[in-house]
């Protein structure tokens, strides 16, 4: 199926129609934030599901009940998706936890006034691409990616859901009010999950014991999260996600692009990266 059939255009980017509608996007635009809300913002395939496991466990101080009884999309909903409207978010006790894939420039008016806390998760874009390719092949609500070479151009051009990775990252890195934003990378979490959990806890004002941090880190290890049916997308019918083609929690490593991109594909990626990121001074955790 084509882009026109599967996607909506929202502020210059594609979003999948299966989970977004003009009404859901209007709900997002009119959403009233509270200063104690916490939003994990990610470009798709950068570690959203991981944050939907980590943050609720930090808030519950290691009690795993919420992550074993609520799906990731209910415990930490996407504000721009249909589901958010149905969850009676007004009644949720603080801190309310949300995720969003939106660019900084797409955030609603209330966000800029209230300045809730944001955890912005970044991942090596070559790994984002590597993770996206099988995902676009298994998720029936996405346009078939074609060959890897074709998808590479689609991805580099930002003709994918939520637009260009480069614009997304540059937009959030250039955000005002950076005191409210914590930047973290997928690679940092892979390198030292306990330290990352500790850093996130401090940012959201939670002091956790070493024992609780270790318990959370253990639960959030890839092999353990993969077993959690509330997080591994096994509850999504196979007509929407065919996990026989590729699992949602696929490999969970840093640097998988090295196993998946040819030298020519990596070189093409690097040349676009170099041009698009030439004015960015941020020190990323991955090899550029
Ligand atoms: P891979 O496809 O490279 O395995 P998102 O949730 O933003 O869609 O990102 C999905 C990516 O995060 C997938 O990457 C998935 O396996 C990875 N991921 C999810 N949970 C993880 C965990 N606990 N540890 C490491 N990677 C994880």
From TrEMBL:
<protein>
    <recommendedName>
        <fullName>Sulfotransferase</fullName>
        <ecNumber>2.8.2.-</ecNumber>
    </recommendedName>
</protein>
<dbReference type="InterPro" id="IPR000863">
    <property type="entry name" value="Sulfotransferase_dom"/>
</dbReference>
<keyword id="KW-0963">Cytoplasm</keyword>
<dbReference type="GO" id="GO:0005737">
    <property type="term" value="C:cytoplasm"/>
</dbReference>
<dbReference type="InterPro" id="IPR027417">
    <property type="entry name" value="P-loop_NTPase"/>
</dbReference>
<comment type="similarity">
    <text>Belongs to the sulfotransferase 1 family.</text>
</comment>
<keyword id="KW-0808">Transferase</keyword>
<keyword id="KW-0128">Catecholamine metabolism</keyword>
<dbReference type="GO" id="GO:0008146">
    <property type="term" value="F:sulfotransferase activity"/>
</dbReference>
<dbReference type="GO" id="GO:0006805">
    <property type="term" value="P:xenobiotic metabolic process"/>
</dbReference>
<dbReference type="GO" id="GO:0006584">
    <property type="term" value="P:catecholamine metabolic process"/>
</dbReference>
<dbReference type="Pfam" id="PF00685">
    <property type="entry name" value="Sulfotransfer_1"/>
</dbReference>
<feature type="domain" description="Sulfotransferase">
    <location>
        <begin position="36"/>
        <end position="280"/>
    </location>
</feature>
């Amino acid at each position: 199926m084509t882009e026109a059939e599967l996607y909506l255009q929202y502020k210059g980017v594609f979003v999948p129609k299966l989970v977004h509608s003009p009404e859901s996007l209007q709900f997002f635009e009119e959403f009233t934030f509270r200063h104690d809300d916490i939003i994990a913002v990610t470009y798709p395939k950068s570690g959203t599901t991981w944050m939907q496991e980590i943050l609720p466990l930090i808030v519950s101080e290691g009690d795993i009940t919420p992550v074993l009884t609520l799906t990731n999309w209910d415990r930490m909903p996407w504000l721009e998706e249909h589901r958010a409207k149905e969850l009676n978010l007004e009644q949720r006790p603080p801190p309310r936890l949300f995720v969003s894939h939106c660019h900084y420039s797409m955030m609603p008016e209330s966000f800029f006034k209230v300045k809730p806390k944001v955890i912005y998760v970044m991942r090596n874009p070559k790994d984002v691409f590597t993770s996206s390719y099988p995902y676009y092949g298994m998720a029936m609500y996405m346009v078939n990616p074609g060959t890897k070479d074709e998808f590479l151009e689609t991805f580099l051009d930002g003709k994918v859901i939520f637009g260009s990775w480069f614009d997304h990252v540059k937009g959030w890195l250039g955000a005002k009010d950076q005191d409210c934003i914590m930047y973290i990378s997928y690679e940092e979490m892979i390198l030292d999950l306990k330290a990352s959990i500790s850093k996130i806890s401090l940012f959201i004002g939670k002091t956790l014991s070493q024992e609780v941090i270790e318990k959370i880190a253990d639960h959030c290890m890839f092999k353990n999260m993969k077993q959690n049916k509330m997080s591994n997308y096994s509850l999504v019918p196979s007509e929407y996600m065919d996990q026989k083609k590729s699992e949602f929690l696929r490999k969970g490593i840093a640097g998988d692009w090295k196993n998946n991109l040819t030298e020519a594909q990596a070189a093409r990626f690097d040349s676009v990266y170099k041009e698009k990121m030439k004015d960015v001074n941020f020190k990323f955790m991955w090899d550029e």
